[in-house]
What does this fold into?
Amino acid sequence: MRLLFLYLMVFGISAFGDGEGWWKWRGPNGDGTWQGPKITKDLSDRGLQRIWKTPVHSGYSGVTTRNGLIYLMDRPPKEKFGEVERVLCFDAQKRRIKWEYSYQSKYGKLGYGKGPRSSVTIYQGKAYCLGAMGYAHCLDALKGTLIWKRDLKKELKIKNPIWGFSAAPEPLDSSILYHVGSKQSGNVLALDAKTGKTNWEAGNDSMAGYSPPLLVEAWGNRQLICWGPNKIMGLPVGGGKEFWSLPYQVKYGVSIAKPIYEDGILLVSGYWNGSKAIRIEKYGGVKLLWSKEDDLRGLMAQPLYRDGICYLLDRSHGLTAFKLRTGSILWRDQHRLTAAKRNPHASLVWTNKKKGDALSLNAEGELVFMNLSGEQYNEYWREQVVGETWAHPAYSEDKVYLRDDRWLACWQLPVKNEN
It folds into this structure.
C-alpha cells in the first residue's frame, strides 16, 4: 500500500493534478488567460534570452506543458520516415526528447498538409491526441506507452474536414470530448478517459468544425456550445438532442475560432461570413443581437475579452477592439500586431487581465508584449523568437515554449523581481 501511495503521489495526483501548467490548448482554463509572474515592460539591451532549442518537424500543433515536460505533435519528411504523425514529449530540464510515439497517417489531398493541427491535452496522467485524419490516441503522459486508440473517421464513417481534424481533445468529467461532426454519431463525441469507449454523443451537423466545444452555464444548466460548418448549437452534457441551434453556414466550413461566452452573450467570429453575437434565452432559445459580415471577420486567432470589450484579429484591418453587447468598433491597429496577409494570425493571451496586459505570438514568429484597452493598442516590446508559425505557445513559470516547423524553443521571459 505504501508503494502504491508513493506511486500515486509521484505519477498521479502530485505529478498530474489539474491545477497548474499549460496542460491544454489556450491554457488551463482554455480561455487564453495566464496567471503567471509580472512581466517587465522594458527589455534590457540584451533583449529576451533563449534558454534552449531542439529540432522538431512540421506541424500546426500547439505546445502544452506539465511538470517540466513539453508536448507537441509533428510530421517528419515522408522520404525518410514514411507517412506518419508523431507525438513528442521533451524534458525541459534535460533539454532533450523524453519519448516519441508515431503512427501511420496518410494525408492524401489534405489541404495545408504539412502536419497535425491539434494540441496534446494532458489530463490525469494521460496524453490525449487527435491527428489530422481522425486518429485518436491516449498515451501514458510520462512514458508514452499506448493506453487506447481509435480510428474515428473509419469507425464513424465521417468525412474529413477540408483542412483536417483540428480541435484539441477537451476533458469533461470522466470523458474526453472530440469535435468530429457525424450526423449519425453526433457532432461531439465523448469518449471514456480511461478506456476510450463511447460514453455519449450530441449534435447532428454533417461535418466537423475546427474548434473544441465550449462548456457554459446558462440559466442554471450546463451546455456545450459547438460551432460546426452549418450551424451554432447548444448541446446537452451527457448527450441527446440540441437545446437550440442557429443556422450559420460558413464558406469552406471554416468554423475555427472557439466561441466566447461572457455576460450572457455568445460571440462567434467567422472569416468570410463575419461575426455574430447571440443571447441564450431562459427557456432554451437564442436571440441574435447583432451580425457584422464585413466589419469583424476573424479566422484562426482566438479573440480576447475584458470589461465588455472584445479584441479580435480582423482579416482586413488587423487587431480590432469592439463592444461585445453592440458590436460597435472602438479602434483598429491596422496590422501593427501582425502583418497583413491572406491568412493573418496571432495567438493572444492575457498575462494580467485586470490591467489589460497581454502576450502574443504572431505569424512571423515575434513575441509581442502589449496593453489592450478600449482606448488603444499600446505595445511595450517585441522580439523574434521562432520562424513563421501558427502554433499556439505554452507559458509556464517564467518561460515560454514555442515551435515552428524546425525547432521547439524555450525562452526566458523578463519578469519583475518582487523582492
Remarks:
- The longest helix spans residues 2-16.
- Residues 1-19 have pLDDT under 50 and may be disordered.
- Residues 32-412 form a domain with the Methylamine Dehydrogenase; Chain H fold (CATH 2.130.10.10).
